[in-house]
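pls design
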C-alpha cells in the first residue's frame, strides 16, 4: 500500500499452505508408478512371478553373504557377484520388469568395472547396490500383493512337494511294468494329475524365457528368432525349471547378441530373415541331455585362436575343439562392443557354473570346419535326471516370439 508521498507503507503477503498439495502430488506419482508395475505384472503368470522373486532374492542373498564375509575382491568373487546380477538383469528383462532391469544393470556396471580393474573394491557401495535392487524387487512383490491380491501361498498343495515327487517316481516305475490296458490308463491319468501340481513342461519354461526377445531383437536391429522344441518327454521339477530358466536366460541372449547376423546380412547370405533356435532333449541315466543350437554365424575359431594366444590360454599343441572350449572362459568374448544385452563374455561361463553346481556339465560339438571363421556348433548340457520327470507324452512346439 502506498502513502500520499508515494512510499510503500504496507505489503500484502498471501501465504498458501501447499503441504496438502505436495502430499497429493506425491500420492499421484506413487499411484502412477504402481500402475506401471501392475501393467508389467499382469503379463506374467502368478506362480511364475513368485518363483522368479524367490530365485532373485536367493541370488541377492548369495551376493550379500559373499560381501559380508569381507573377502577383498579376488577374481572368482567378483565373477560370481557379476554372474548372479547379470542373471537377475536378464530375467527381469525377459519379463519386461523395467525398473528391476534398470537398477540391476546399474549394479552390474560396477561389478564390470571391478573386473577390469577400473574401480576399487568398496563393500559399502556393493551392499548399498544390493539394497537398491532388493528394494525394487520388494516393491514389485508389495504391489502384486496389495493391488493384485497375489499371495505366494496361493499355489500351495496339501501334500508336501517331496511326497508328491516320491509318489510320482513310484508311479513312473509302475508304468514300466506289464499292466493291462485299463490299469495302465488309470495309472497314467493319475500321474498326469500329480505332474501338473508340481512340475513344468519344458515348453512352458522355454515360452517364459522367450518373453522380451522381441524387444531385444529390435534393440539389436535383428529379426525376432523362432525357437523350435523337438519332441520331448521331459517335465521339470521346480529346481530343474529354475535352473533351465537361468541357463536359457544366458543362452538366448548369447544367440541374439553374438550368434545371429543382422537381417540384411542374413538375407544376403540366402538365409531367412528370422533366425532359428533348435532345442532338444534325450534321456540317458543318470542324466537328461539338453541340446541347444542356432543357425547364426557360428564360432569364429580364427578369432578365438588369436585371443587364446594373446592371453596365453592355449597349450603348445591344441585342436579346434580346444579353441571352441574357450567360449566357456570367464570374460572372453569375440564381440568388441558392450551393450545392455551383451554379457561381456559372462554368458556361457555362467551357464557352465550353474550346471556344475548342480552336478551337470556342458560341452560344445562342432559342425563342418570348411569355414573356420563360421563354424556351426551345438551346446550339449547334461543335467541330473532327478531334476525332472520322464513321461510317456511327447510335445513338439515352435515359438514365434515376435510381438
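designed seq:
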Amino acid at each position: 500500500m502506498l502513502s500520499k508521498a508515494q512510499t510503500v507503507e504496507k505489503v500484502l503477503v498471501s501465504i498458501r499452505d501447499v503441504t496438502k498439495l505436495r502430499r497429493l502430488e506425491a500420492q499421484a506419482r506413487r499411484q502412477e508408478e504402481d500402475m506401471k508395475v501392475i501393467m508389467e505384472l499382469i503379463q506374467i503368470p502368478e506362480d511364475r512371478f513368485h518363483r522368479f522373486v524367490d530365485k532373485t532374492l536367493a541370488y541377492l542373498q548369495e551376493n550379500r553373504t559373499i560381501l559380508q564375509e569381507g573377502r577383498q575382491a579376488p577374481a572368482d568373487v567378483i565373477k560370481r557377484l557379476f554372474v548372479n546380477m547379470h542373471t537377475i538383469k536378464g530375467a527381469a528383462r525377459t519379463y519386461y520388469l523395467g525398473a528391476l532391469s534398470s537398477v540391476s544393470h546399474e549394479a552390474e556396471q560396477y561389478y564390470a568395472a571391478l573386473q577390469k580393474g577400473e574401480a576399487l573394491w568398496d563393500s559399502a557401495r556393493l551392499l548399498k547396490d544390493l539394497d537398491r535392487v532388493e528394494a525394487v524387487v520388494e516393491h514389485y512383490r508389495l504391489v502384486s500383493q496389495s493391488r493384485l491380491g497375489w499371495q505366494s501361498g496361493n499355489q500351495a498343495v496339501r501334500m508336501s512337494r517331496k511326497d508328491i515327487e516320491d509318489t510320482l517316481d513310484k508311479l513312473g516305475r509302475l508304468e514300466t511294468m506289464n499292466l493291462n490296458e485299463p490299469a495302465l490308463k488309470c495309472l497314467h491319468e493319475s500321474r498326469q494329475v500329480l505332474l501338473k501340481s508340481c512340475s513344468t513342461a519344458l515348453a512352458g519354461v522355454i515360452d517364459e524365457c522367450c518373453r522380451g526377445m522381441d524387444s531385444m531383437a529390435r534393440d539389436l536391429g535383428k529379426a525376432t528368432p523362432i525357437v523350435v522344441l523337438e519332441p520331448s518327454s521331459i517335465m521339470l521339477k521346480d529346481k530343474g525349471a529354475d535352473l533351465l530358466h537361468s541357463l536359457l536366460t544366458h543362452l538366448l541372449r548369447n544367440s541374439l547378441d553374438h550368434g545371429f547376423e543382422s537381417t540384411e546380412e542374413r538375407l544376403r547370405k540366402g538365409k531367412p530373415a528370422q533366425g532359428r533356435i533348435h532345442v532338444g532333449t534325450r534321456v540317458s541315466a543318470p542324466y537328461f541331455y539338453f541340446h541347444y543350437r542356432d543357425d547364426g554365424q557360428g564360432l569364429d575359431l580364427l578369432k578365438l585362436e588369436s585371443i587364446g594366444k594373446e592371453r596365453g590360454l592355449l597349450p603348445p599343441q591344441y585342436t579346434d575343439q580346444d579353441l571352441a572350449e574357450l567360449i566357456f572362459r570367464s570374460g572372453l568374448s569375440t564381440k568388441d562392443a558392450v551393450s545392455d544385452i551383451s554379457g561381456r563374455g559372462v554368458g556361457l561361463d555362467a551357464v557352465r557354473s550353474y550346471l556344475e553346481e548342480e552336478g551337470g556339465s556342458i560341452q560344445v560339438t562342432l559342425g563342418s570346419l570348411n569355414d573356420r571363421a563360421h563354424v556351426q556348433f551345438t551346446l550339449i548340457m547334461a543335467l541330473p535326471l532327478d531334476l525332472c520327470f520322464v513321461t510317456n507324452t511327447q510335445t513338439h512346439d515352435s515359438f514365434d516370439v515376435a510381438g
